[in-house]
UniProtKB/TrEMBL annotation:
Keywords: Lyase, Metal-binding, Zinc. Zn(2+) binds at residues 41, 43, 97, 100. Reversible hydration of carbon dioxide. Its cofactor is Zn(2+). This is Carbonic anhydrase. PROSITE patterns: PROK_CO2_ANHYDRASE_1 (PS00704), PROK_CO2_ANHYDRASE_2 (PS00705). Belongs to the beta-class carbonic anhydrase family.
Length: 211
């Protein structure tokens, strides 16, 4: 594998994109109006735009190991704030995937260094749902924890001051939890959509002046 291969691929891609649509790139320059923010895993097998078949300009993307939403993560917060306040996306999707290496690493409890700290929120979910998870076989346990992680991270998105402030000013933002299956390419809605403050646990609801 060489770097040259990437530049050759890029040249061929540009040719394909402009073959039937000479203005493809010119149009994109003036168009960043995505309606969706994808918060997904860095895993190379989970290519955001490809999975939902969206063109450049249609999907705003943030990815990290195990699609975590850590409320002190300035990178994630910056992406979320820009997406909600400036781009005015309608849908924020936390997208996990079955067989996630990050979730698997948390589950294994093997020491791996710095990443052990990053994975702590998943261990918290493991602790909260220990009796449920303990009763499952290994592969089902991993699948279930991948799903529980997505639901928890979707709630974390909704609990941010960014999303709650948007709701307070009447902006329509929905937060979804989705999971992707590597083995068949299918994306599943976990049915944990949050679209109003009362979808949050009371402890997380911010009280704004005037109501
Ligand atoms: Zn992953």
């Amino acid at each position: 594998m060489t770097m040259e291969r990437l530049f050759a691929n890029n040249k061929a891609w540009v040719s394909r994109k402009t073959a039937n649509d000479p203005d493809f790139f010119q149009r994109l320059v003036n168009l960043q109006k995505p309606e969706y923010l994808w918060i997904g895993c860095s895993d190379s097998r989970v290519p955001a735009n490809d999975i939902v078949d969206l063109a450049p300009g249609e999907l705003f993307v943030h990815r990290n190991v195990a699609n975590l939403v850590v409320p002190s993560d300035l990178n994630m917060l910056t992406v979320l704030q820009y997406a909600v306040d400036v781009l005015k996306v309608r849908h924020v999707m936390v997208v996990g995937h079955y067989g996630c290496g990050g979730v698997k690493a948390a589950l294994s409890r093997a020491e791996m260094g710095l990443i052990d700290n990053w994975l702590q929120p998943i261990k918290q979910i493991m602790a909260t749902h220990r009796s449920l998870l303990d009763g499952l076989d290994d592969s089902t346990r991993l699948d279930r924890l991948c799903e529980l992680n997505v639901v928890a991270q979707a709630r974390n998105v909704a609990a941010t001051s960014i999303v709650q402030t948007a709701w307070t000013r009447g902006q329509n933002v929905q937060v979804h939890g989705l999971i992707y299956a590597l083995n068949d390419g299918r994306l599943k809605d976990l049915g944990c959509t949050l679209s109003a403050p009362d979808h949050l646990e009371p402890a997380f609801r911010l009280i704004h002046d005037g109501g």
